[in-house]
Amino acid sequence: MASAKLVCALLLCIVLSAPMLNVDALSCGVVAGDLAQCLTYLKKGGRVPPACCKGVVALKSAAKTTQDRQDACNCMKQTASKVGGVNAGFAAALPRLCKVNIAYKISTSTNCTSIK
């Protein structure tokens, strides 16, 4: 429980500092911030919180270029690895459950460089 709170606090700090960086690229902080509300679902399943789907939609809208989509993919893979306990099936189902069309499978085995 303490590690989940630490991750949430870290994500909050990253998200709050992201606008100050003034960069055009989609940062990992933005990706992690958009998906922070999904963490409980990704680990335990159940009902997807509306705030999670809102984050998925925001991430899809923010990932405008091929580089953005590849960066988001790499960030999701790295974050899932660091956080641990993410269920691959729950992660793969998230776009469908949130009614968001993503052209690639959300998985730690996804080759992010193949995303266009």
Which spans have pLDDT < 50 for at least 5 consecutive residues?
6-23
By CATH reckoning, the class would read Mainly Alpha
* CA distance, first residue to last residue: 37 Å
Task: Compute the number of helices.
Answer: 6
Number of domains: 1
Relevant CATH superfamily: Plant lipid-transfer and hydrophobic proteins
Largest sheet, strands/sense/barrel: none
Computed Rg:
13 Å
Mean pLDDT: 80
Q: Judging by the overall fold, what is the CATH architecture?
A: Orthogonal Bundle
Question: In words, what does this structure look like?
Answer:
With 116 residues, the chain is mainly α. It has helices at residues 2-21, 28-35, 39-44, 50-62, 66-83, 88-97. The chain has a single domain, classed as Hydrophobic Seed Protein (Orthogonal Bundle). It has 6 helices and no strands. The longest helix has 20 residues, at 2-21. The chain is globular.
In a nutshell, what does this entry contain?
With 116 residues, this protein is an all-alpha fold.
Features:
mainly alpha; 116 residues; 65% helix; Hydrophobic Seed Protein
Tell me the layout of helices and strands.
Blueprint: H1 2-21, H2 28-35, H3 39-44, H4 50-62, H5 66-83, H6 88-97
Helix pairs in contact: 1-2, 2-4
Pfam family, one: Tryp_alpha_amyl
GO biological process, one term: lipid transport
Keywords: Disulfide bond, Lipid-binding, Signal, Transport
